[in-house]
Structure formats: structure tokens, C-alpha cells
From TrEMBL:
Protein name as catalogued: Phosphatidate cytidylyltransferase
Top-level division of the source organism's lineage: Bacteria
Location(s) in or outside the cell: Cell membrane
Enzyme Commission identifier(s): 2.7.7.41
UniProt cross-references to PROSITE patterns, sorted A to Z: CDS
Length: 281
């Protein structure tokens, strides 16, 4: 009989930990190099990530018989993300409104003029939700990059999200006893949330002081805010995957799942980082 192949070691989170660490480290170092030396390239890299994430989500939705208009979402999602570069928030808002309207009309007539669409309200609502969830929130990373010292601002928010992830994982594995929202994400604990807060606040103090040369208390505000929205972003995706009956949105990143499985906490964090840093610095 053929010998059974040894399985890759998995963490308590159910992931291949060595693969996850290798992929995460490689992505992190690459993005740091881009932001420090060729910051505008970050827009292109993030745009590709948004496109792949939109493909993953729309594919999963259509597999569940949610017939979101895929072509308008993919094309319009890129417009929402990219038009922030030349035209700022006005470009993002205009592209979002145009894409939302296009999705409504596309879904209304995608079965022809003689057949009424089925589940029109559900499918268009989910399409606009997807448009808001991925490219609209991602566009704030572009707006953040275009601010003074924007590359350092983007680097700051990304470091804090990593601090939140690492702190939550370490504290959750070592001390996790009390589930936070067991009906949505059984492995997420209050101890892990506290670990995220500690790591992220420390990271916020250091990055805002050393990288942005701003008041350290802004780092505390940003650190706490990002832990809250990063956790909520993770829970939102967990509930969506639960309703779709899947574990991951994709398989592109070993140990992580798909691109969307890495962006779930980054997306709302980009918006909150833009809001806090634009208002306070």
C-alpha cells in the first residue's frame, strides 16, 4: 500500500503555519521595499490585489447562485480604485456611483428584454455591497498615499494591522479561553483581542512617533481604532464565508487562502487610517 504523505503542520487556527509565515513575510518585505523606494508602484500592486479579490468574491457568490453582474463589478471596481489617483475623493465617488448604477441596469436586463430578472433586489444589493466592501474601502489607501509623506502613512497603517494580527494570534494561542463571537468565529477570543490592542497600541506609539514624527497620542488613537475595525472586518468576512459555506475565498496564498482572506482587515483599516491621519496630522 502507498505510504500516506505527512501533512503540513497546522496551527491552532487551522492553518499551515510555516507556509503562512513565509508568505506573510515575503509579502510584507516586498510592500515595505515598494513603499520606501517606489511608492507609486504600490497603487499598481494594490490595484491588482483589488482585482483578484473581486474575482474571488464574485466567483464564490455566483457559485452560491447569487448572480452579481461580474463584468461591471470587475471593471467598475478598478475605476473606483484607480480614479482616486488623478481626481482624489471626487474620482472615487463618481466611479462608485457610475458603477453602482451600471450594476443595477446590467442585472435588470441580463436575461434579455422579454424576461424579468429573478432575485433582482438581492443580487443588486449584494453587488453594491461588494463594490463598497472591496474597491471603495481600498481606494482610501490610494488617497492616503497621496497625502504628504503618504508612503509612510500607508506603511504605518499596514504595520499596525500586522501588529494587531500578531498580537491577537499570540495572545489567543497562549491565553485564549473566552470566545468573542462564537456564532461567527469560534476561534476568536477576548484574550486575543486584548493582545491585538497591546501590540497595536505599542506599534502605533512607535510608528507615529518615529515614522510620521507626530504626537504619540495619535498613535494610541490609531492603534485602538485599527484593532476595532480590523477585528470587525475579519468577522464580516467570516460571516460571509459562513453563509456561503466555504472556508476561504480563494487558494492563491498558501497558509492564508485567497487575496481577499488577507484584505479583510486591511480594507476598513485603510479608511480609518485615512480618516484619523488626515484629521489629526
Amino acid at each position: 500500500m502507498p505510504q500516506e504523505q505527512p501533512k503540513a503542520p497546522a496551527s491552532r487556527a487551522g492553518r499551515n503555519l510555516p507556509a503562512a509565515l513565509a508568505v506573510g513575510l515575503g509579502l510584507g518585505l516586498s510592500l515595505i521595499a515598494i513603499l520606501l523606494f517606489v511608492p507609486k508602484v504600490f497603487i499598481g500592486v494594490a490595484g491588482v490585489g483589488v482585482g483578484v479579490a473581486m474575482w474571488e468574491v464574485t466567483k464564490r457568490l455566483r457559485e452560491a447562485d447569487v448572480l452579481v453582474p461580474r463584468i461591471p463589478l470587475l471593471v467598475g471596481g478598478q475605476a473606483v480604485f484607480w480614479l482616486g489617483w488623478p481626481w482624489g475623493a471626487s474620482g472615487v465617488l463618481g466611479a462608485f456611483a457610475a458603477t453602482a448604477l451600471t450594476c443595477m441596469v446590467w442585472r435588470l436586463f441580463d436575461h434579455g428584454l422579454s424576461t424579468a430578472p429573478r432575485n433582482f433586489l438581492r443580487d443588486t444589493a449584494i453587488a453594491i455591497f461588494t463594490l463598497s466592501w472591496i474597491p471603495l474601502l481600498a481606494a482610501f489607501s490610494t488617497l492616503l498615499l497621496l497625502e504628504p509623506d503618504g508612503n509612510l502613512r500607508v506603511l504605518t497603517f499596514m504595520i499596525l494591522v500586522v501588529c494587531s494580527d500578531v498580537g491577537g494570534y499570540v495572545a489567543g494561542v497562549l491565553f485564549g479561553r473566552h470566545p468573542m463571537v462564537p456564532a461567527i468565529s469560534p476561534k476568536k477570543s477576548w484574550e486575543g483581542f486584548c493582545g491585538s490592542l497591546v501590540f497595536s497600541v505599542i506599534g502605533g506609539l512607535l510608528t507615529v512617533t518615529l515614522l510620521l514624527e507626530a504626537n504619540s497620542m495619535i498613535g494610541v488613537v490609531l492603534g485602538v481604532g485599527l484593532v476595532v475595525v480590523a477585528t470587525l472586518g475579519d468577522l464580516i468576512e467570516s460571516q460571509i464565508k459562513r453563509e456561503l459555506g466555504i472556508k476561504d475565498m480563494g487558494t492563491l496564498l498558501p497558509g492564508h487562502g485567497g487575496i481577499m482572506d488577507r484584505l479583510d482587515s486591511m480594507l476598513p483599516s485603510a479608511f480609518v487610517s485615512w480618516l484619523v491621519l488626515s484629521a489629526l496630522i
